[in-house]
Write a structure and sequence with these properties.
Elements (H helix, E strand, L loop, with lengths): L3 H4 L2 H24 L17 H17 L4 H18 L1 H16 L21 H22 L1
Helix pairs in contact: 2-3, 2-6, 3-4, 3-6, 4-5
């Protein structure tokens, strides 16, 4: 199978470009607001803005721009985007809070466990603001790429 058609799919390029931009913005956000440059943020979940939201928003808007806003393709992409954004701000954020509590129980005062293991990742989800900003980043990237898409 030739991967070139997939790699040349402009809608996918725009969607993943928005995701990468959102990940890069996490490093910038941390540098400005927390005065800490942390390249590890390029590969982590959680934080400002939501790269998952940027990805699905860019995908939905790019599909709407190229396939039409009334089509089934856009409807599917919009529903998936809503589910992903809801999950990022709801279910995954709750899982992050649970991980934080479990880490406090398992590793009191930050001490290592006698049984080994590593703490659970706590930055899993997003606040509603992080999800909205991610969606704006994604939609903005698609909007700016519109002349290239069509």
């Amino acid at each position: 199978m030739d991967a070139a058609p997939i790699l040349l799919n402009r809608i996918l390029v725009v969607a993943f470009g928005a995701c990468l931009l959102a990940q890069a913005l996490k490093v910038f956000w941390a540098a400005v607001y927390h005065r800490k440059v942390d390249p590890k943020l390029l590969t982590t979940t959680g934080g400002m803005p939501s790269s998952h939201s940027a990805l699905v928003a860019a995908l939905a808007v790019a599909i709407g721009e190229t396939q039409g806003w009334q089509g089934a393709e856009f409807a599917i992409a919009a529903v998936v985007a809503i589910i992903v954004m809801y999950d990022a701000a709801g279910v995954r954020q709750a899982a992050g809070r649970h991980a934080q509590i479990l880490n406090q129980i398992t590793y009191p005062l930050g001490q290592a466990s006698d049984q080994g293991g590593t703490p659970l990742p706590e930055a899993l989800g997003h606040t509603p603001l992080e999800v909205v900003v991610g969606g704006i980043v994604g939609a903005g990237v698609s909007w700016l790429a519109c002349p290239w898409l069509v």
